[in-house]
Write a structure and sequence with these properties.
The longest helix is centred in the middle third of the chain and has 17 residues, at 84-100. The chain has helices at residues 33-44, 59-68, 84-100, 124-137, 180-186, 198-205, 225-234, and strands at residues 3-9, 27-28, 31-32, 49-54, 76-79, 110-116, 139-145, 150-153, 161-164, 170-172, 176-179, 211-214. It starts with a strand and ends in a 5-residue tail after the last helix. Helices cover 33% and strands 23% of the residues. It is α/β, with parallel strands linked by helices. It is built from seven helices and twelve strands. Helix 2 links the parallel strand 4 and strand 5. The protein has a single domain (3-141, 172-234), classed as Spore Coat Polysaccharide Biosynthesis Protein SpsA, Chain A (Alpha-Beta Complex), CATH 3.90.550. The strands form three sheets. Strands 1, 4, 5, 6, 7, 10, 11 and 12 form an eight-stranded mixed β-sheet that branches. A two-stranded antiparallel sheet has the order 2-3.
């Protein structure tokens, strides 16, 4: 049996939602978005260790929400950082300390996933598929093909665009899952602006080229009111 962790990153301020409340705390089908996300991973594996990364200013609010909604899924809350990179790094620091305290060699027996807190519709099957593939390939992440037509800007000043072959482009989702030693080592690097997700960090370290699994379109990232409305429909919320 492999030990499994997931770091759920939830540092958004909800600016694109047009709301004073951060998007991860918006009530979706009777509960805050973030609770649905944690529940998805707990439903996948009751033994998975959940690390939730939140800004310090949101911790008390989250604790109160858990009381108000009687939310009891086991998880540990860690302080977020300046960027997503730093937030994930903070979560990894906690995991590294926990693993270092174990006497056995944990290097080959632990998987760590990283997931966006505002992807509450991630399915049990997608989580399982990604963790299983990461077991075999050291790292795995879900992708879906681009369906819209794409055009590329050809200059910084002139508004000129050219068509590109959309069959060569894919949208990247989470969870992104890796062997613990590889992910922890990769996050020892200095931060770079091109580190937009965990795959980019791991690939920059040069120790692993993660493989892909088929993602799901319903595993959307809630960043706008339209995303929220779609999530309500997909979850068949009662109004």
């Amino acid at each position: 049996m492999q030990d499994k962790y997931v770091i759920i990153v939830a540092g958004g301020k909800g600016l694109r939602m047009g709301s004073d409340s951060p998007k991860q705390f918006q009530v979706l089908c009777g509960r805050p978005v973030l609770m649905h996300t944690l529940d998805a991973f707990y439903d996948y594996d009751r033994a998975i260790r959940i690390i939730l990364v939140l800004p310090d200013v949101q911790m008390v609010y989250w604790k109160n929400l858990c009381t108000d909604y009687d939310f009891n899924i086991p998880h540990v809350v860690v302080s977020g950082g300046e960027t997503r990179f730093h937030s994930v790094k903070n979560g990894l620091s906690l995991i590294e300390k926990q693993l270092a305290a174990k006497e056995q060699n944990w290097m080959d027996n632990v998987l760590i996933g990283v997931h966006d807190g505002v992807r509450p519709l991630v399915s049990k099957s997608l989580i399982a598929r990604t963790y299983e593939q990461a077991t075999l390939e050291k790292g795995a992440y879900p992708i879906i093909p681009v369906t819209d037509s794409l055009r590329k800007s050809t200059g910084a000043t002139a508004k000129k665009f050219v068509s590109v072959d959309r069959s060569k482009y894919f949208l990247v989702q989470t969870p992104q899952v890796f062997w613990a030693d590889l992910l922890i080592a990769a996050y020892k690097q200095d931060y770079k602006e091109e580190f937009t997700d965990d795959v980019s960090v791991v690939e920059a370290a040069g120790t692993c080229h993660p493989t892909t699994v088929e993602g799901k379109r319903e595993n959307l990232k809630i960043t706008t009111p339209i995303d929220f409305a779609i999530a309500q429909i997909l979850m068949k919320c009662k109004t």
